[in-house]
């Protein structure tokens, strides 16, 4: 596995951790339990550690963009499936553009 692929895997894993953290925080808003807040915080920290590790292999701007875009794409799907928050046509186009951006950043 080359370093670019390894960095991409780290960043997608970070995007997943960030998304799970977002979902935990959204759930925490309705339940205000400190344990949920702590879990969300730990998940955010894990995502940031993975981002920092990816800096060893990838450009900082590219790595940060991949993490952010992967979070947005995954979160759009999760918010629709779990929270039944529909996306408008323009928002769907934005998610598709993000996926294209992920592809372009990876092959760049």
Description of the structure:
The chain is mainly alpha-helical and about 110 residues long. It contains 4 helices and no strands. Helix 1 (about 5-30) packs antiparallel against helix 2 (about 35-55), helix 1 packs across helix 3 (about 60-80) and helix 3 packs antiparallel against helix 4. The longest helix has 29 residues, at about 5-30. The protein is flat and about 45 Å long. It starts with a helix and ends with a helix.
How many distinct beta strands?
Answer: 0
Q: How many DSSP helices?
A: 4
Average of the residue pLDDT scores: 89
Order of helices and strands: HHHH
As for the number of domains, it is 1
Low-confidence region ranges: none
What kind of assembly state do the chains in view correspond to? single chain
Distance between the termini: 17 Å
What's this model, at a glance?
The protein is mainly α and 108 residues long. The chain is built from 4 helices and no strands. The mean pLDDT is 89.
Outline the secondary-structure elements.
Blueprint: H1 3-31, H2 34-54, H3 60-82, H4 89-107
Helix pairs in contact: 1-2, 1-3, 3-4
Write out key terms for the chains shown.
single chain; 108 residues; mainly alpha; 4 helices; flat
